[in-house]
Amino acid sequence: MIRLGSNSPTRALILRSHNIPFIQNGGSFDEDSIHETDPIEFVKIATQGKFDELFSKYGYEDMPLLVADSVVTCEGKLLRKAKDKEDARRMIELQSGNKTSVVTCMIFKSKESYIFDISKTTYQFAKFNTDAIDKYIDSGECMGKAGAIMVEGFCKPYIQSVEGYESTAMGLCVEKLVQFVTKL
Description:
The chain is an alpha/beta fold. Helix content is 34%, strand content 26%. The protein contains 6 helices and 7 strands; from the N terminus they run βαβαββαββαβαα. The longest helix is centred in the N-terminal third of the chain and has 20 residues, at 39-58. The relative contact order is 0.18.
């Protein structure tokens, strides 16, 4: 059993789909306090901040602690969660017909193991259909998602190529984690 230090339903789904037993205890780390604009540095700082908060609350001695964070980047720009529908549209239109990367940082700490991993998955998207963009934004599904995208949802029909693991793009590189969790 591990402690998932995240409120993300997608990360929970990834663990369930790989039969990794867990309890979910997310924190309240304020990502808006980070002023870094480099995507990789941002995700490192956010993940470490979340880990430090939850480590001080729960430790890892009774149960391993897993924390992760993801960011989206396109044309070197850090694309965080959309502030509103206009911000979502700006990010989605930037990614339309473009290469977009999802960078996920993960920290896993148990008595036996420590993992600090940064993984990246890059997608080449075809041009998004304008009507589909409108419908997606109106649905609100884009809100609360890094870069306002869902590679497992809205973006899926537009993927022309992918480099990396889908799980990384969904918020947790389970392929790297599973080798350590199975040893518990």
